[in-house]
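Q: Entry one of two.
A:
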Amino acid sequence: LQMFYSFRLLWTQALQHVQTGNLREAKSILKQFQDLENSNLPLGLQPYFVNELRFEIALANEDSNQLEEMLTSYRSKAQVGSKLRCMFNYREARSATALKDNASLEAAARQISDQECVMNSKTRGILLAHARLWLAELALDGGENDNARSLLEAFRQDWSTADEDLGLSQLAGSLEERL
């Protein structure tokens, strides 16, 4: 258990390095994760942490080839019957955002917003929030203020008690200022 929490702490540090643009340190931590034997971690989580950190680094690098390769791999694991898991659409939307591919962003966000994918009840709220804000920003960029307003109202209704210091709340506020 202690090793798991040490690993989680290192994971958090790696994400902070990615977010601050210190990709050299993030890659160094990724190497540590890759060198660790999966059997040393509870629940065999080593591949998960390695893949997620590789994805975050690829996003930060706007590495379209690596992102496409990873999305292809994720897609095969995300299929549930005829639908995809919404977490796949979320990853797809994040990739599209990094690559400034508005058409792919809209398609992925709409799948989540319209709940046309398989959604875990634990992640439902955060996925819908992201999707609505992505779609609202695209609507504003396209001059569709009424559509953007509707999406922002839906966000505010679901997140009525959200702390205004949260990144999503701040993004919603900046989008509302554009209306």
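Q: Entry two of two.
A:
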Amino acid sequence: RADPSCPVVTMLHNSPSYIFPKTSKGEMTGMRHSAAVQVLVPGFIEDVKKLMPRTPVCVIPNVIPQVTVPVDLSRVKKKYGIINVARLNKESKRQHLLIEAFALLSDDFPDWNVYIWGKDKEKYEAELHHLISAKHLNNRVFLMGTTENIMAEYKKAGLDGDYTLGDLWKKNVLGGRLSK
């Protein structure tokens, strides 16, 4: 049991509807004894309250730096990029859906490429490489690994391609980001 003199805050960095079905009874008991549960968006509060009605829930969103550089929409480029920035994860980040969707459109948009930034802890990267090869996108879809300056990559991109389960709100904030 947790030391009551040291409050514990449980952080949920995905949709509770995604996390809770995979959570053991012991983990749920521990969460119910938390001083509070932190979620990323207000829409997640209700899901937490259904299972933990007495536990305080607060919203602390992920930080998304504001891009203040004006966009020149009239600028023509030789190549355009769709960027995906997330850990490589089949169940929640679902980069394979971006690759599948791009495969359907890639012949119609030869000036566009996909750049997927992130690392793999689950051997999903090998599956993505296989999918890229199977769809004949080896020169169009790139698994980039990690970078220390992701904002520079966002500025080069044309669109944010994110298929994260439970993060549909992000598409409204970041989707359609056009580069200078």
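A: Comment on entry two: The first helix runs from residue 16 to 19. The beta strands are 9-11, 36-39, 57-59, 80-85, 112-117, 141-145, 159-160.
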